Amino acid sequence: MMTDAWGTITAVDGQYAYLRMDESGCGRCRQQGGCGGNHLGPLWCGPPRTFRVLNPDHCDVGAHVQVTVAEGSLGRSALYAYTFPLLALFAGALSGSACGGEAGAIGGAMGGLLVGWLGLRRAQRQSQHDPRLQISIRS
């Protein structure tokens, strides 16, 4: 099963298309089990975002297309984005506290957050080339 949303092609560059997403959520807001994020998206998100995705069907500019992401990839990404930095923060704070009291805990927590951020950046670079995790246009 896939997570779907709708977008409009704003430009075409060879085998890639630039998509402007029509919704800020995943498109499941009105369905059973949807999180309702589409209603909260405009509060935190600016103008619609544009993404560069493969265009295997060579759709033209202005085409309204369905965009899909593999089921579970969004949940896994959110889990990693929240838990990894939090665990790194706690580990840094605990180890810093053991070495240097309160000041060590603060420094360790900051170091842990830095390690968490660097780890997420590394994972993001590695996953960029995994075709199972890429946004695609569904024909």
UniProtKB/TrEMBL annotation:
<keyword id="KW-0812">Transmembrane</keyword>
<feature type="transmembrane region" description="Helical">
    <location>
        <begin position="103"/>
        <end position="120"/>
    </location>
</feature>
<dbReference type="InterPro" id="IPR026268">
    <property type="entry name" value="RseC"/>
</dbReference>
<protein>
    <submittedName>
        <fullName>Sigma-E factor regulatory protein RseC</fullName>
    </submittedName>
</protein>
<feature type="transmembrane region" description="Helical">
    <location>
        <begin position="79"/>
        <end position="97"/>
    </location>
</feature>
<keyword id="KW-0472">Membrane</keyword>
<dbReference type="InterPro" id="IPR007359">
    <property type="entry name" value="SigmaE_reg_RseC_MucC"/>
</dbReference>
<keyword id="KW-1133">Transmembrane helix</keyword>
<dbReference type="Pfam" id="PF04246">
    <property type="entry name" value="RseC_MucC"/>
</dbReference>
